[in-house]
Amino acid sequence: MNRVATVEQLAINTIRTLSMDAVEAARSGHPGTPMALAPVAYVLFRERLRYDPERPHWPNRDRFVLSCGHASMLLYAALHLAGVKQVGPDGRPTGELAVPLEAIRQFRQLHSRCPGHPEYGHTSGVETTTGPLGQGVANSVGMAIASKWLAGYFNRPGFDLFHFRVYALCSDGDLMEGIGSEAASLAGHLQLDNLCWIYDDNRITIEGPTSLAFSEDVGMRFASYGWRVVRVPDVNELGCLRSALAELDRPSDRPTLVIVRSIIAWGAPTKQNHHEAHGAPLGDQEVRGAKAFYGWPENEQFLVPPEVLEHFRQGHLADCHQQADQWYAMLAEYRKAYPDLAAQLDCLLKGELPEGWDAEIPSFPADPKGMATRVASGKVLNQVARRIPWLLGGSADLGPSNRTELTFPEAHGDFSVTNPTGRNFHFGVREHAMAGICNGLALCGLRPYAGTFFVFTDYMRPSMRLAAMMGLPVLYILTHDSIGVGEDGPTHQPVEHLAALRAIPNMVVVRPCDANETAEAYRVALQRGDGPT
Ligand SMILES: Cc1ncc(C[n+]2csc(CCOP(=O)(O)OP(=O)(O)O)c2C)c(N)n1
Hints:
Elements: H1 3-26, H2 32-48, E1 63-66, H3 72-82, E2 85-87, E3 93-97, H4 101-105, H5 135-154, E4 166-170, H6 172-176, H7 178-189, E5 195-201, E6 204-205, E7 208-209, H8 218-225, E8 228-232, H9 238-246, E9 256-261, H10 284-294, H11 306-313, H12 316-337, H13 339-350, H14 373-387, E10 391-395, H15 399-402, E11 424-426, H16 431-443, E12 447-453, H17 461-470, E13 475-479, H18 497-502, H19 515-527
Parallel strand pairs: 1-4, 4-5, 5-9, 8-9, 10-11, 10-12, 12-13
Antiparallel strand pairs: 2-3, 6-7
The protein binds thiamine diphosphate.
């Protein structure tokens, strides 16, 4: 082995052993998948993702989503080795590491930067909260759409401000979940060539082998969604992994699925390839055995060889740092060339609304019959959207009923591969993915809205709850909220939904009873920068 190969293996084994040690110390957690996928984290965080550890909020950074959030130690180990800095509440790096070694020692303990599942806003470098399987991949579709939309709206000749890619790492569970299929189907339809999912095909879930319940050909399924499918027969073949990911650099009109075969808990003497290694500490004997297999000192815990840190931080990451410098210099020039657009971008990135955004919210005259609130909603939405260019969204195939369409010319019609500045989205009949995608859009600074009948929030609730948890300003436009919907009958009559949504912490639920209350509801919702309405 030459020196580079040695330090590569050392780096990969550092990710593995940190993960095992953290789970042992916590006496709970998921060691098997980080041990298996350490080569993926290594190649992504050291060679492929464009991000600047000094400025984790660089707007044009590539996004990484760990959709299988239970493998959180994989992400924490990578953030530690890459030296990603923590960002304070003011949006500036605090100078300290986002994941110091001490935090890894405190894995899964209260207030640690390394909670059991990654939490957005808590640990810099964590792009979204994951844990409920399937949510992360849906978020990644929203982020990839956001990249296209931001590019369409803000980029100008000579100012290629936005072109980031989105990578999501997902497990069998993510791809068994319906939301994963919904999101993949829409991503294929939209031809999101900036999106890459890396599927950990380890054929193990909690109850045992996937053959218990999952026997489709995932590659064929994704090919039929319109994805490019690439295979890596062995995750430990770094060359193969690298060339699979390099496929992304070849022009395509498809998102990419990289199917990686791995063995859970690779290297553990008796637990490798066994479902017991999924969600419980391996135990001292297995850990020692695995360390011996890796050629690692068995008595050492939380060992990070200094040459690994050095290796991680040179080369590609030094290059990315320079790219971020150049990006900020370009932004300074952009400010001079396009001051209005630059002011809008600043506003968007700060999570603020343009001045006078609510100046045209109408006031409706008294009317004995009363305008239907959904009609008022459509009018108000169109008024405020005129003044908030990054307010965008759509419905799960109920646009005409929900009145969610933006009809004025500056809304640029429907979003599509040929019309990336379009602000009207057709999510199809995919409520769950719609809500997950809106979270991804909001995570990139946009102000998304999602429409459907109130009763169908049943299909969106997990993503709505995560929006509330992450403090994302997503707007839900939910019509037909009454049990008096008439001929459609009880399937369409929401009875418990109001109470159910009001029970979600940090979800604001407004139920306007006339046109003017609807207008005020918009004022309340859009002013909220720190949670969904
Ligand atoms: C929506 C949802 N359902 C159930 C779970 C509980 N859970 C965590 S991991 C997992 C499956 C594990 O299998 P896989 O996704 O293949 O992950 P791996 O074992 O390869 O790490 C389940 C059912 C969850 N986190 N989210």
